[in-house]
Backbone:
C-alpha cells in the first residue's frame, strides 16, 4: 500500500513538532508545505517523517523533524533576513530557511551534498539560495555578514569567526558540547563585541570537520 506523504507530513507537524513547543505559525506552515520526502535518499523515503535522524553519508545525519522545528522557531527569521547555513546536508533545512527569509547562503564541505541539494532545491522551485563548497571552521569565508547563522553540525567550541559573520542584532544558532550531551545555543549579537547566550535544549549531532573535541589519551 502506497504511503500517503501529504497525510504523513500533517501527522509529523501535529503529532511531533507542535507538541515539542513549536508554535510559530510560519514555521509550522513551512514544515507542512516543504516536501521532506523529496530531500531524503530514495531508500529512506518511507522514513522521511519518522522521529529519528537519517544517515546522509560521510558520517553526517539529517536532524529529526522536531529539532528542525525548534531550530527554525528559535531563529525568529524575518522575510527580509539574509541567512548563512553552515552544513547544507540534505538541503531540507536550507529549503525551510529560504522560505522564511529573503535569501540563504549555504556551505558544505562535501561537494556531493551540495550538488544533490542544488537539484532538490531546484525541483522544489526554491531559487533564493546560493550554494557553496567549503570548509567553514577554518578556511571558507563568506562575502558580507548575516542576520542569522545556523550551524547544522556540532562544535566542541564555537569558532570566533562564526560570530564575526553576524550583523549587530544577528543570531547564531549552534550545537556545542561533547557527545552524547550537546546543547543547542542561541547567541545574539548585542553590538560592541557582546553576545547574549541562551541554552535552548539538548541534542546529539556529528561534529563539523575540524570542530571535534580534542582527543583524550588514556593511560
Residues:
Amino acid at each position: 500500500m502506497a504511503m500517503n506523504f501529504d497525510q504523513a507530513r500533517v501527522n509529523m507537524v501535529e503529532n511531533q513538532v507542535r507538541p515539542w513547543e513549536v508554535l510559530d505559525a510560519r514555521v509550522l506552515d513551512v514544515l507542512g508545505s516543504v516536501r521532506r520526502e523529496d530531500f531524503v535518499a530514495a531508500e529512506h523515503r518511507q522514513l522521511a517523517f519518522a522521529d529519528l535522524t537519517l544517515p546522509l553519508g560521510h558520517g553526517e545525519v539529517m536532524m529529526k523533524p522536531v529539532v528542525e522545528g525548534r531550530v527554525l522557531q528559535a531563529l525568529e527569521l524575518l522575510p527580509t533576513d539574509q541567512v548563512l547555513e553552515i552544513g547544507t546536508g540534505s538541503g531540507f533545512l536550507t529549503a525551510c530557511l529560504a522560505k522564511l527569509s529573503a535569501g540563504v547562503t549555504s556551505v558544505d564541505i562535501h561537494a556531493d551534498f551540495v550538488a544533490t541539494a542544488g537539484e532538490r532545491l531546484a525541483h522544489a522551485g526554491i531559487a533564493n539560495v546560493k550554494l557553496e563548497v567549503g570548509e567553514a571552521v577554518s578556511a571558507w569565508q563568506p562575502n558580507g555578514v548575516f542576520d542569522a547563522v545556523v550551524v547544522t553540525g556540532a562544535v566542541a567550541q564555537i569558532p570566533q569567526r562564526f560570530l564575526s559573520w553576524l550583523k549587530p542584532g544577528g543570531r547564531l544558532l549552534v550545537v556545542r558540547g561533547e557527545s552524547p550531551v550537546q546543547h543547542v545555543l542561541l547567541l545574539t549579537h548585542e553590538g560592541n563585541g557582546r553576545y547574549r547566550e541562551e541554552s535552548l535544549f539538548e541534542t546529539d549531532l556529528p561534529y563539523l570537520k575540524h570542530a571535534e573535541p580534542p582527543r583524550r589519551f588514556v593511560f
